[in-house]
Amino acid sequence: MMEDLAMHMMEIIMNSIKANSTLIKISISFLTQANKIIIEIIDNGCGMNKELLDRVTNPFTTSRTTRKVGLGVSFMKGLCESCDGEFSIQSEVGVGTSVLASIRKDHIDVPPLGNIGELMMMCIQANENIDYILTYKDDLDEFVFESITIKEDLCGVSINEPEILLWIKEYINQQIRKENF
């Protein structure tokens, strides 16, 4: 398994990036009253045909040429299964892919959330032409980060400037910490 939820999400998001997505929506819900953590990642990439979709949770199914295993989807599914949760993936060629993962929040094997600001910084760095919408919810509040808004505010300056990426990382982490306290 991976050390935190952010790493699990990164694997799924990298698949979305490789699928030529122009928009990736990431939703994280920490629901104490429902005792659930729900993660949803939706992209508008190239999607998968039924044959690939049926095999995608197998760790020996990958589109990579550098190695013969693809562990991101299978690890996320395994985490859900081992933490009394549910996992589903839907995809349509030419439309995109949706991954929904839920786990029991108080399960002993649930990894920590991890650094979501750093996750978003790395995603933006991977391809600045992709727009990201990150939604973080708990029982009381919701925080939304939209990269397109930042790009508009930058008036032509690249979102990949180091100072901007660091600001994004800190801003997201600050907002998530605020939501947790």
Percent of residues in beta strands: 25-35%
- Please work out how many helical segments DSSP would assign: 6
The percent range for helix content is 25-40%
Reported for the largest beta sheet, the result is: 6 strands, mixed
Uncertain spans: 64-70
**Which structural class do you get from the secondary structure elements?**
alpha+beta
Number of DSSP E strands: 6
Mean pLDDT: 90
Indicate the overall shape.
globular
What is the rounded Rg? 16 Å
Spatially, the strands of the biggest sheet line up as: 3-4-2-1-5-6
- Report the span from N to C terminus: 28 Å
The succession of helices and strands, N to C, reads HEEHHEEHEEHH
Any descriptors?
single chain; alpha+beta; 6-stranded mixed β-sheet; 6 helices; 38% helix
Report on the structure:
With 181 residues, the chain is α+β, with helices and mostly antiparallel strands. 38% of the residues lie in helices and 25% in strands. The protein has six helices and six strands; from the N terminus they run αββααββαββαα. The radius of gyration is 16 Å and the shape is globular. The protein starts with a helix and ends with a helix. 28% of the residues are buried.
